[in-house]
Amino acid sequence: MLTFRCPYCGIDACETELAPGGEAHLKRFGPGSADADFEAYLFLRHNAKGVHFERWRHAMGCGKWFLAARCTATLEVFGTYPAQTPEPPQDIVAAIRAKRPDWSLS
Amino acid sequence: MSEFSVSALDGLSVGGSVTIREMGRQGMVSLRADLSAAAKAVARVTGAEMPAQRKISAGKECAVAWMSPDEVLILCAADQAGKIAFDLSEALTGQHHLALDISDARAMFSVTGEAGAIRDVLAKITPADIGALGLGEMRRTRLQQVAGAIWFEAGDEARVICFRSVARYVFDLLAMSAREGGTVGYHG
Ligand SMILES: [Zn+2]
């Protein structure tokens, strides 16, 4: 079972209180963009086995979207941070590196 | 709210390891705003301090509960909700906000009995850590299939709120969780 601490209300929320929102930090390619970029934005995901950045919504709680870093293989959670964060913050990256020395932010 | 309005279950009650009662017409006002900027207006209208994260603060014949970083819920007498919503909107003129009487959109239940039995009944229907829920704290969570919120009014009374459309479902859920023969004894 996954438990994320919601950065907005501070609750340690069980996965069943949350709604998943897929991979985080996607760059949007909209109308007028190259076909390949648009396709990648719509369909292509890392689908990593290991460290993964995700969007979640505290749907059965405060209602806010937040971002989380976790391991898809072990369900270990490295941290959560506000949705208004364009890239993984330093403290989250440091927390991941401490547990996964071989990992790098690609 | 009209004089003809009735609550979702009209005061329905049931016994078991605890007593569950739908509380009749309950005033509720939702305020969405920048909470720090709205603190003065809320204090003037309700007499309550702006609650800290997840807390409930007491005002003049009402209570103000923190619901999210930009939302509080004001619990008051049913016939006061309209006036409180109106007064908040007046006090917040020029500030981006929404103050709305949502009394008819919600239902409220009281769960009374022995402190441990109440916590057991609630813990069976929510993933929230009910053992860690203190007095004066609002816990929004999941009540099996639906969203709801729980807080303790006193050691021997919890309150549960949900949307009116699922009031019967939540009542039945609480009643089933409190049914004789289903006691757990986990929370002492
Ligand atoms: Zn939350």
Structure overview:
The complex is a heterodimer of chains A (about 110) and B (about 190). With about 110 residues, chain A is an alpha+beta fold. Chain A has a single domain (about 5-100), classed as 2-Layer Sandwich (Folate-binding fold), CATH 3.30.2270. Chain A has helices at about 35-45, 90-100, and strands spanning about 5, 10-15, 20-25, 50-55, 65-70, 75-80. Chain A has a four-stranded antiparallel beta sheet. A two-stranded antiparallel sheet of chain A has the order 1-2. In chain A, strand 5 and strand 6 (about 75-80) form a beta hairpin. Chain B is globular. In chain B, helix 1 crosses helix 2 (about 80-90). In chain B, strand 10 and strand 11 form a beta hairpin. Helices cover about 25% and strands about 35% of the residues of chain B. In chain B, the strands form two sheets. In chain B, strands 1-2-8-11-10-9 form a six-stranded antiparallel beta sheet, covered by helices on one side. In chain B, strands 4-5-6-3-7 form a five-stranded antiparallel beta sheet, with helices on one face. Chain B is of the alpha+beta class. The interface of A and B includes residues 12, 17, 59, 62 and 64 of A. Zinc ion binds next to loops of chain A.
Draw up the topology in text.
The complex is a heterodimer of chains A (about 110) and B (about 190).
Chain A (H helix, E strand, L loop, with lengths): L2 E3 L6 E3 L4 E5 L11 H9 L7 E7 L7 E7 L5 E6 L7 H10 L7
Antiparallel strand pairs in A: 1-2, 3-4, 4-5, 5-6
Chain B lengths: L12 E2 L4 E4 L4 E7 L1 H12 L9 E4 L2 E7 L2 E6 L4 H11 L5 E5 L4 E7 L2 H9 L15 E5 L2 E9 L2 E7 L3 H11 L11
Antiparallel strand pairs in B: 1-2, 2-8, 3-6, 3-7, 4-5, 5-6, 8-11, 9-10, 10-11
Helix pairs in contact in B: 1-2
